[in-house]
Amino acid sequence: MLTASGLAKSYGPRELFADVTILLSAGRRVALVGGNGTGKTTLIEILMGTNRPDAGSVTKPRDMTLGYLPQDLVDTSNRTVIAEVVSGAGELAVLADRLSELETLMGDPDQDQDRILHDYGETQSRFESMGGYALEADARKVLAGLGFAEGDADRNVGELSGGWRMRVALARLLLAKPDMLILDEPTNHLDVDSVAWLEQQLAAWPGALLFVSHDRDFIDAVANRVVELAEGTVLEYAGGFAEFVVAREERLARIEAAAAGQARDVAKVERFINRFRYKASKARQVQSRVKTIQKLEMIKVPDRRELVARFAFPEPPRASRVVAEFHDATVGYDDMPVVSDVTLTVERGETVALVGPNGGGKTTLLKLILGQLEATAGTAQLGSNVSVAAFGQHQADELDGSKTVIELFSGGIDPGKRNLRTVLGSFGFPGDAADRYVRDLSGGERTRLALARTMIEPVNLLVLDEPTNHLDLPSCDVLEDALTAYPGTVLLVTHDRHLIRNVADAVVEVRHGKATRHDGVPDEVLTPADPGRFGSAKPASGKTPNPRTRHRRETAQARQATAALSKKVVRLERNLAKADAVVADLETRLADPEICNDPEELQRLAALYEEATARAATLMHDWTEAAEQLEATG
């Protein structure tokens, strides 16, 4: 059991948090949530012992083993993947090394062979009793669950990209089974399949677990406690993310009601004071009430504002109906196809999410449609009048740190009628935050800035590759709202299932060298029925999630489905209003008697009117259908 009591930490005049108390024991799976800059990483460092608090203490048993996965790895191993993972197995790894050493000594005639054989027998017996001979097999199962191919186990860790090295570190921790596991954004470099597999492992984790995540589905599936770091302290809520949201709203409502009641009482007293301030007969009562107000501790209402955004994107140039089209397209590297025979289209106004295992070809398809790769067979092309803005996985790391936020954001942009500082504020950089240097921003803030810079361009196709990496929950909400408000077409690669459900019109599943389009967002594509199909590793306890966990997930999924449908209705209403305005404008122009003097213009406007009325009719049908579905769910 690890207990933290009365923790406080400040940096100069800025107080991160105070009076923080946390209990971590076997079976407690705690999700730590809070906005960027609230001190989540600092709190984790204090719990790990790598940072010292200004006040308070952390106590834990001397023999407690801690495992920690940071967001960014510093050291890179030169061992093979399998050797690095096995090395994390604690005493078993030590025994395995000892057996290897003794086997070498057996071939040396100058050594005392009787003693060596005796040591070997004892070491081997203990190694076998602890399940050591299944160690490598277990390590390979964990690697398979995290998306590694069979041949990757023998590759050198130093050859891997940063994302795959993070997976190696995570596999090492899972195999080691420490008493307490601390994970900082463990899903950042995973695909939806590996996230589902990891959920299964952690939901049955027998030890203590503390993790930071921006993935609502992941929190709901794994956590049985949510600790929110906000307002300079922590509050703990029982249950997963769904229960946390409800309980937090109820708590805020109670505080606001109490504060409102207190304000009414204070106003009543102040009216008495003002009325009788100068009456000698009431002087004693007035002074009593003045002292009462001076001593009164006012109820502080927590600030609900996190990153409340309102987006008004410029209307992009109109693209053709088909924005992107693949026809029997095959693409790969060094004459090795990654994805073959892809035939699908993306139409104007759609948001299409690409999902599937890492290395399956999602990013390759994006590079193909962007012209960064050429098809070895078939074709892939953009429609006419399509303009593109793209966000890559590592784009935030490439921002110029010597510039301020506003300088980098506004460079090369024609603001038109927009106030760029107002736009930056909607992306979470209000007021003086726009004048900070980029080098001083956190990873999540740099990602948010890079997204803002990408999305502000007046283009009709956005291509986003893993935009939620390093974002906190409020920033993910900003991105979701921005994508909902965006009037163009979106191609989106992300492992965030909540985001996909709420913004996507269709899903393209990229798997086993093929790409399959699904209209809507089928849950079986986002959450595979058998997440362990990559390997046969089972949850640590050998148990499936309990009925309460299943019920919580089902409730959360139903709530998310309703929210997605509600947003679809709002989006259709907005598009329908725009379409009706276009029809009304064309009717006014066609009703102008002067138009009869220009037959060509009359013919052009008539064609536009026919197209506009057809679009409005289609939107009305879609809106009616979606509204009826939403009403049925209510």
Question: What would your notes on this structure say?
Answer:
The longest helix is centred in the last third of the chain and has 45 residues, at 547-591. With 634 residues, the protein is α/β, with parallel strands linked by helices. It is built from 19 helices and 18 strands. Helix content is 44%, strand content 19%. Strand 15 (461-465), helix 15 and strand 16 (489-493) form a beta-alpha-beta unit. The protein is flat. The strands form four sheets. The chain has a six-stranded mixed sheet, sandwiched between helices. Strands 14-15-16-12-17-18 form a six-stranded mixed sheet, sandwiched between helices. It has helices at 40-48, 81-86, 91-105, 113-129, 135-145, 162-176, 192-203, 216-222, 241-276, 283-295, 362-369, 405-410, 420-426, 443-455, 473-485, 497-503, 523-526, 547-591, 599-633, and strands at residues 2-11, 14-24, 29-33, 55-59, 66-69, 180-184, 208-212, 225-230, 233-238, 322-333, 336-347, 351-355, 377-382, 388-391, 461-465, 489-493, 506-511, 514-519.
In short:
This protein is of the alpha/beta class and 634 residues long. The protein contains 19 helices and 18 strands. It has a 6-stranded mixed beta sheet, with helices on both faces. A 6-stranded mixed beta sheet has the order 14-15-16-12-17-18, with helices on both faces. It has a 3-stranded antiparallel beta sheet with strand order 2-1-4, covered by helices on one side.
